[in-house]
Amino acid sequence: MFPEKLSQQIIQNAPDAILYVDSKGLIQHWNQGSERIFGFTASEAVGQSLDIIIPEKLRGRHWEGYYKVMASGESRYGTELLSVPALHRDGQRLSVDFSIIMLKDDQGKVTGIASLMRDVTAQRQKEKELRERIAALEGQ
What we know:
Layout: H1 4-13, E1 17-22, E2 27-30, H2 32-38, H3 42-45, H4 59-72, E3 82-87, E4 93-104, E5 110-119, H5 121-138
Antiparallel strand pairs: 1-2, 1-5, 3-4, 4-5
């Protein structure tokens, strides 16, 4: 069995965001990677809604999907990456890739979702610049 203390160190110190959100959509765990990527300390984020990192115009769509997953216990993002815009504390827009882990109680009811998130903002910007450069070259 993997030592619990080692598991906690890995989760807390990972450079990627690892967070846990309960069935109501409230943040219950926020690691150092989350702090680095999103700019909120754990003490500022824990107990808050995920809305602190979701762009306002996407919140309705996010919560609709979130509550469907809570009710059904099913999501394709346990095995597929999802790329979405996110927000930094300072209002800067980020691009993140993430996957989720459904957490269930002994009866199989979903109790929340853990998420692994990576900031891919710089990579997406480079891809955009390359697409624009290709388009400009093809237009000559």
